[in-house]
Amino acid sequence: MEETAARLRSAGLRPTAPRVAVLAVLEAERQHLTADEVVRAARKRLGALSVQGAYDVLTALTSAGLLRRIEPAGSAARYEARVADNHHHIVCRSCGAMQDVDCAVGEAPCLVPSSAAGFVLDEAEVTWWGLCPDCHARQQIKSVNDDEMEESA
């Protein structure tokens, strides 16, 4: 916990109990958590934390560069503690599972658009969509079962 408090101080934030708990949760989980998931996990550490308090902490930690907010289309915003690089994400269309994908080409922004329209680029955010291995396997099994039912009819 002292290491987490030190990270907060180095970002110019007071290490309050809610901030320490929320940052510790996201550092420990190493996943992409929704605000609700963060609240539940932080409450286990603190005992009490209001939803508004958690949102305030998430906003402060994101603004300070200690967290990254990811907003996949059609999904609740998610937060992660991996902020020191320009990585991307893969999202399962079925269950919403999300995985990090390291940048494939060098340093940030690691991708170059066909036209930057005069912008000075410093980051690229890419989200690939598909099916995770578990959902793909379930889809394959369902397809086989559906085919067997059609043949027997």
From TrEMBL:
<keyword id="KW-0678">Repressor</keyword>
<keyword id="KW-0862">Zinc</keyword>
<keyword id="KW-0805">Transcription regulation</keyword>
<keyword id="KW-0804">Transcription</keyword>
<keyword id="KW-0479">Metal-binding</keyword>
<protein>
    <submittedName>
        <fullName>Transcriptional repressor</fullName>
    </submittedName>
</protein>
<dbReference type="InterPro" id="IPR002481">
    <property type="entry name" value="FUR"/>
</dbReference>
<keyword id="KW-0238">DNA-binding</keyword>
<comment type="similarity">
    <text>Belongs to the Fur family.</text>
</comment>
<dbReference type="Pfam" id="PF01475">
    <property type="entry name" value="FUR"/>
</dbReference>
<dbReference type="InterPro" id="IPR036388">
    <property type="entry name" value="WH-like_DNA-bd_sf"/>
</dbReference>
<dbReference type="InterPro" id="IPR043135">
    <property type="entry name" value="Fur_C"/>
</dbReference>
<keyword id="KW-0408">Iron</keyword>
<dbReference type="InterPro" id="IPR036390">
    <property type="entry name" value="WH_DNA-bd_sf"/>
</dbReference>
<keyword id="KW-0963">Cytoplasm</keyword>
